[in-house]
Amino acid sequence: MSEKTMMQTSSLYDYLNWRGDLSFENVPFGEVDSLILSMLAYIDYTGLVPDELNPSKKPPVLLSVTKEFLRAQNGSIPNMGLIIPKETITLLARTAKTARFGLTRPFAYVNKICDESQKQFSAISFLLTNGDVFVAFRGTDDTLVGWKENFNMSFMSPVPSQKEAVEYLEYIAKNTSGDIVLGGHSKGGNLAVYAAVKASKETQARVKAVYSNDAPGFDTEFIGGEDYRALKERIHTFVPQSSVVGMLLEHEESYTVVKSRSSGLFQHNGFSWEVMGGSFVNLDDVSEESKLIDRSIKSWLAEMPPEERAAVIDSLYEALAATNAKTLTDLSQDKIKIVKAWNSMDNDARNQVRRCINIVFGKKKQQKEVKEIKE
Question: How far apart are CA 11 and CA 6, in angstroms?
Fold first, then answer.
């Protein structure tokens, strides 16, 4: 591909077209590779990728796994829920056809959903052709319990999926050799950082890099710890210019701002991130709207002690669970359930939820305040 064409690249697909024929031995693993495999972690590989390593048998290559996956779909696109982009299936198909990714070997796929412990955890690892292992943690899926666990991060540390992430990483380290790279999108990025920081010293020594793609941060105690500081230089954090999710809680590591073709919350979708050559298109800073939302959310949370946050989140979750809905898709297909859930919440919790919605979606007010700041 010519230099002129390369300079016009702007998407993950363009990256695959440009760099897909180059192995990891020729061009080292990088930030765009991390986002691609992190997005592929959203796919359900049940029955296609072994959940454990078999020393006497190599895992199948990604190309074979993809063929089996697509064959099972009979030409249709599986319903992955409201928040997981449908482009993920296309990304899998295109990624698998490249020399760069097609011969990687996905293995150790796990997917654990537990309503009782309020845990949503999924991960998959890829044995790269250069001998390194990439550990990809899935972000929040369509399940209500997954969203509940996300909200629990505002008052609980660690949450169950974070503990699970550490155990998973130690399993991968015990059963493989070579360097380890971790990554994830959204909550998956948070799990990648947490696992690397809390891993044993032996495992940490093999961690080459951690990629966090628009993921929430941690509480001040976590980022102030020696383990975090020791690993901080290996943590690479990326957020889009209007990031909301990636600015939540605390970050001490520096972050890179990525240009997105979308606006607002839709920038959380990694498919909207612009790519130039082998890297993301960078901007100097996040937008004023992002900063304003971040300050407003932090101020709102600071006004509520942890036990009050827990009460509000529990009230919301219990109201939604009472509708017998298990996923956001379930709720979207029956608006009456949403109304019933809203009406069943106590007034204090309902007011706090309304306030949060106003902070994130109160566009006119945000635009007015941003204009005042600039003037």
Answer: 11
Would you give the DSSP letter of residue 337?
H
Query: At CB < 8 A and 24+ separation, what contacts does 278-284 make?
Result: 278/15, 278/19, 278/27, 278/30, 278/32, 279/30, 279/31, 279/32, 280/31, 280/32, 280/238, 280/256, 281/10, 282/256, 282/257, 282/258, 283/241, 283/257, 283/258, 283/259, 284/257
Rg of the chain taking only CA atoms, in angstroms: 21
Q: Where are the alpha helices (DSSP H) in 56-186?
A: 62-73, 87-96, 99-102, 144-152, 160-175
User: Using an 8 Å Cβ cutoff, are 284 and 291 in contact?
Assistant: no
Does this model's pTM top 0.70? yes
Single out the residue of 206, 146, 215, 145 nearest to residue 176, CA to CA: 206
Rounded Cα gap, residues 244 and 242, in angstroms: 7
Q: How far apart are CA 311 and CA 313, in angstroms?
A: 6
In the chain, what are the helix, strand and coil shares in percent, each to the nearest 5? 50, 15, 35
How many residues appear in the chain?
375
| pLDDT in the model for residue 358 | 81
pLDDT score for 370: 42
- Return the sign of the alpha-carbon dihedral for residues 92, 133, 16, 22: negative
Q: How many CB atoms lie within 10 A of CB 368?
A: 11
Rounded to 10 degrees, the C-alpha dihedral 264/270/272/277 comes to 140
- Using omega within 30 degrees of 0 as the cis cutoff, is the peptide bond preceding 216 cis? no
Distance CA 67, CA 97 (A): 10
User: In angstroms, what CA-CA distances link 330 with 43, 326, 341?
Assistant: 19, 7, 13
Residues 6+ apart with CB under 8 A from 172: 108, 125, 133, 135, 180
Q: Which residues of the chain have pLDDT under 50?
A: 1-7, 9, 364, 366-375
